[in-house]
Every structure is written in C-alpha cells, then in structure tokens.
Amino acid sequence: MTILPPLAILAALVAALVLPLVLLGLSHGPWRVAPLGRRFHVAALLVLAGWGTTMLLHWATLSAVDLFAAFCLLAGALLAEFTLWTLVCWGFSITLLLELVRADRPLDRDAWIAAYTGGGTIEQFTHDRLGVLLHHGMARVDDGLLSPTPRGLVTARLDGLLRLWFGLRP
Amino acid sequence: MSDAELSLLVGFASAGVQVLTVPIGLRLFRRVAPVLVHVVGAVGIHLGATLLAWGMLPPFPYWHGACLFGFISIFYLFGFSAVYKSVSLTVLRKICKSGGMPLELVVQQHVLPSFTERMDLLVAMGLVQHSDQAFVPTPLGREKAANMLRLHAALGIRKGGLYGFSVPGDPAPKN
User: Fold this and answer.
1) Which segments of chain A does DSSP mark as H helices, in order?
2) Distance (Å, whole) CA A160 – CA A99
C-alpha cells in the first residue's frame, strides 16, 4: 500500500490545515471580516482559490482520480471546520455558560436568558432562530402566525426521514 | 481498474458499511453520546476495511479511498447534527404538523424548553450550580469559559449566540 499522497491530495491537506490560520488573519487588523458567517466563507474561498491555483500550475501531471479524491478531502475538511466554527461562534450551551460567567453574579432563569440575548427577551431569541427559517424561505409570519412554505414542508419531510433513519424521536 | 480506482472503491464500500451500521449503533448505545458513536464507528470501520483490503487485494494507494470515506462520513455526521437538536428544525416540524402556530405558542412550547434543557445540561455537567432560584458557574465552569473566551479573543469574536439574521421588526443584535 502506498502511503505517500499525490500532489493534488497533499495540496488539499495543506489547504485544509491552513484554513484556521486564514480565519485568524481575517479576525483582526485591516483584513478583518466582521460578520462571522461571511468570515468563514471568505476564508474557505481563499483556500479553495489557493488549491485551485496549485492544480492549474501542475495541470499536466494530474489525474482525474487524484483530483476527485483531493476535492473530497477538501470538501470534507471544510465541512468539519465549518461545524467547529459554528459551535465556537453560536454554540447554544457554551454561549449560555459564557454569559453567566460574564455576568459575574447569580442570575435567575429570565436574567440568564436576557444576558444570552444581549439584554433582549426570549421573543428576540425566537425571532433570531426563526430568522434561519424565514431567511431560507422555509416559513412565513402572517399576523403573528408562523406557517410553513412549500420549501419548509419539503425540508420537514426530509428532516422526518433522517430522524427515522437515525432512530431519533419524531 | 487502476490502483487509485481500486482505492476509491474500498473507500466507497467502507463508507457504505458506515452509513448502514451507524443507525444500528445509535439504537444499541442510546446512553453513549451520538457523536461518539459516529466517530468511533468511522475510525473502526476505516481501520478494519483498510487492513482487510490490504490483506486481500493487490497493493493500492491509501489516500484516494481514505479521502472519499472521510468525505462521506463527515457529510453523514453533518446531516445527523443538523436534525439532532436544532431549535429551528424542531419549530419547523411542529408548524408543519399543525399547519401553523402563533409566535407566542412557539416561545412557550419550544423555545423556552430548549433554554431550560441546556441550562439543566450545564448543571448536570457540573459547569453551573443552581441554588435559591439562581444560577452561578462552578470553578470548572469558570475554567472552561476562560478557555473559550481566550479562543474568542484570538478569533476576534465579540459576541456569540445569536445568528444575527435580519428579521423585519426584530431588534436582535448582530455579530
């Protein structure tokens, strides 16, 4: 068995490992990208561009199978890194803990929720979470009633099938 | 079939085994953290399949199959994580079943319990103490939070938690 990776895969490995450093570079100074979601997208595009440029420079020596495998590696790594990024930025439990520590005094349930939402209410948190559904066209609000769109119905059906497959409560 | 294609085939076949066996593992080991079931399953199947193929097949390159297996395993775990505890998807599921729901009811029936559940989880993990209707972090909780705050400072994250989507009439702060 050959353990040494071909160039395309080696470049994908390097690109995946470099992504956290690119994120770090985009977190401070003149290149700072303030919105956290956009920051990850910019970092991912930069490493993809770097990998793509390397591939173009060595095009003559590459095989389609190498490129396919390298792309799988890079896509999988970006997905894993995005998952970690969302946990660090928006993780529910960890943000709750951070806000309790930041408050530096005992908080009751309502005050803790207010600290989490930046002085807001649970309704604001609800709007923020519902923003995901509304932004992606999966639900709409009419006269205070939240209802699903056709896209929301399809998403819910897919969600139900996945839950059934994984043995989660319906 | 080339050596690299054989490697891809081994990776694809072992990913198929992973896709079929994880749901069984999740049902058998309900007390084990689901992510652990995914990860231990993926590592075990990858090692087992690689060693088996190494012993039974002509020599082939390792990386092509490993890349494909890794991608499918991560995509599978991503799909699981999306449906496991998402507040948004829970709400979507409920409004699809009922056809619609007043926002007040969404707050009372789904959002508030999701907060309570996470607060109780932090208490159960020994990171937060609950007494006299008030919550305070334990020394362990303060230590974990300090580590995360250092990471946030390094990454220039000033405020986490809210996604910051723009919703008409919603004053939620942005990141």
Assistant:
1) 7-25, 36-57, 64-90, 92-103, 109-116, 122-135, 150-166
2) 33
Contact by Cβ (8 Å): B174, A127 = no
Q: Which of B71, B120, B152 to mutate to test the interface with A (most CBs of A within 10 A)?
A: B71
Out of B74, B103, B172, name the one closest to residue A79 (CB).
B74
**Cβ <8 Å between B172 and A125:** yes
- Structural tokens at position B78: 């991503």
pLDDT computed for residue B170 by the predictor: 37
**pTM of the entire predicted model:** 0.83
Nearest to B164 by CA among B174, B152, B150: B174
Residues of chain B in contact with residue A155, where contact means CB-CB under 8 angstroms, are 89, 92
Q: How far is B40 from chain A (nearest CA, A)?
A: 16
Predicted confidence band at B172 (pLDDT cuts at 50, 70, 90)? very low
Query: Among A69-73, B2-6, B81-85, B158-162, which stretch is predicted with the lowest mean pLDDT?
Result: B158-162
The answer to whether the beta carbons of residues A66 and A9 sit under 8 Å apart is yes
How far is residue A73 from each of residues A18, B36, B94, measured CA to CA in Å?
Answer: 14, 21, 37
Instruction: State the residue for tokens 């390298």.
Output: A70
What residue in A sits closest to B136 (Cα-Cα)?
A: A106
Query: Residue for token digits 């939620």?
Result: B172
Q: What's residue B112's pLDDT?
A: 85
With a cut of 70, say whether residue A60 has pLDDT above it.
yes
More confident residue, B88 or A46: A46
> How far is the alpha carbon of A61 from chain B, nearest alpha carbon, in Å?
15
In this complex, do B145 and A23 lie within 8 Å of one another by their Cβ atoms? no
Torsion of CA A152, A154, A158, A163, to 10 degrees: 50
pLDDT at A143 over 60: yes
* Residue of chain B nearest A70, judged by CA positions: B67
Q: Which residues pair with B130 in a beta bridge?
A: B135
CA atoms of B175 and B101, how far apart (whole Å): 29
pLDDT band for position B162 (cuts 50, 70, 90): low
